[in-house]
Design goal:
13 strands; about 290 residues; 13-stranded mixed beta sheet; elongated; alpha+beta
Length: about 290
């Protein structure tokens, strides 16, 4: 007689006529299936949705690369005809009255909405709104202002849509309309490169920054006060890197097995306890409990 391989079966089957369905077992089974479906759906959503992780990386800035800058500022007490933007950096760049991609829109009779887009080198420098580029200076100065946007980089909206904590435009709605009209206003900014890499390998680059503010009265040649609105910047060598990750498939499969197996095991224990308690209670009612 040959060896019967069925003897190795550790999942022995019980004939149907030896099992007993119960109302409690049906309720436990339904709850068990609903719980498994809920947990599997949650786990699947977690597996499909990438996890966003961040890290700090030290990188040397490439001085040949340029950073796009966008500014949008209201100067309520200076006419547009007197305003210009000057750009300087430590490599010797010095542009007075930069006009490319610059839009000046009058506000009322005395104010100006100043908008500009330009590029800066990846080295310390500054850009400032002033009257340096005009031949005829105004009779009075007042660089009271309201900042709508000062941003670095061109992918800010795409990165901001990723629901990460960021500081791409912290000067938004910054208003300084009081104080001495002869004051120069100075913002010192620390620019931090920021990259975002999605699960497919596509990379977005933008720049966050922090700032500090101070005001002072500066004197030009001959002791004349010539105020301006300054933005001084320096780049941080540390890059904030965001990247999407997804757990490996085996991790998902292991979790699925744990959910299904664990739920059925616990449900079986609960059903057995309820069934045993019910049987004991019935015997007690019949007076057969020893």
């Amino acid at each position: 007689m040959g060896f019967d391989i069925k003897r190795l079966d550790i999942y022995r089957k019980v004939p149907k006529d030896l099992t007993q369905p119960t109302m409690t077992g049906a309720i436990v089974s339904i709850c068990c299936v609903l719980f498994i479906v809920f947990m599997l759906g949650t786990e699947l959503m977690w597996f499909i949705s990438p996890d966003i992780r961040s890290e700090l990386v030290v990188q040397n800035a490439d001085a040949t690369e340029r950073i796009p800058v966008k500014i949008n500022i209201s100067i309520p007490r200076m006419k547009c005809e007197f305003l210009g933007i000057d750009i300087q950096d430590d490599m010797g760049r010095h542009e007075v009255g930069f006009v490319e991609n610059t839009v000046k829109t009058p506000i009322g009779d005395e104010g100006c909405l100043f908008e500009a887009k330009f590029h800066i080198n990846k080295i310390p420098g500054n850009f400032h709104l002033s009257t340096h580029s005009v031949d005829v200076q105004p009779d009075s100065y007042d660089f009271a202002h309201e900042i709508h946007e000062i941003s670095f980089g061109s992918k800010i909206k795409k990165i901001s849509s990723k629901n990460i904590r960021s500081s791409f435009n912290p000067l938004k709605d910054r208003s300084k309309v009081d104080g001495n009209s002869l004051e120069s206003h100075e913002y010192v900014m620390r620019v931090v490169p920021t990259t975002y890499e999605d699960i497919g390998g596509s990379k977005l680059v933008a720049y966050q920054y922090t700032y500090a503010y101070r005001s002072h009265i500066s004197f030009g040649h001959g002791g004349r006060v010539i105020p301006a609105l300054w933005f001084k910047y320096d780049l941080n060598p540390i890059t904030v890197r965001y990247h999407e990750t997804r757990p490996p498939l085996y991790h998902f499969l292991t979790t699925v097995c744990a959910i299904v197996g664990g739920t059925f095991t616990v449900a079986g224990i609960v059903d057995s306890c309820i069934f045993s308690a019910t049987e004991i209670f019935k015997k007690f009612e019949l007076g057969k409990l020893n």
